[in-house]
Design a protein that fits this description.
By secondary structure, this protein is of the alpha+beta class. It is built from three helices and three strands, in the order H-E-E-H-H-E. Helix content is 22%, strand content 40%. The protein starts with a helix and ends in an 8-residue tail after the last strand. The model has no long low-confidence stretch (mean pLDDT 83).
């Protein structure tokens, strides 16, 4: 969190690799932004801890009893790019 606070503009890359000829990659340019408003922060922490529709399984959320230690944030996406490689299945010659 400290690193994101110091450098809020960063990128996030997600890759799915099935083989050297079957993969895809997504790159997001985004800005880290902490949620400061009391009502919105309450709504977000309710989702994490499980007061509404929980984002975490109950087995994990129950350990987050001290809400003041939860950092609520969003990632504002500015740019989205991606690449992929898909090999066509070879057809045997007859």
């Amino acid at each position: 969190m400290e690193l994101l606070r110091q450098h809020p503009e960063a990128c996030l890359e997600v890759d799915e690799i099935r083989s050297p000829v079957d993969w895809r990659s997504v790159l997001l340019q985004r800005v880290y932004e902490e949620i400061a408003g009391a009502s919105e922060r309450q709504r977000v922490t309710d989702l994490v801890v499980g007061e509404a529709e929980p984002a975490l399984p109950a087995s994990v959320a129950r350990y987050l009893r001290r809400r003041e230690h939860i950092v609520a944030y969003r990632l504002r996406i500015h740019e989205r790019t991606g690449r992929y490689e898909r090999s066509e299945p070879s057809v045997p010659e007859v």
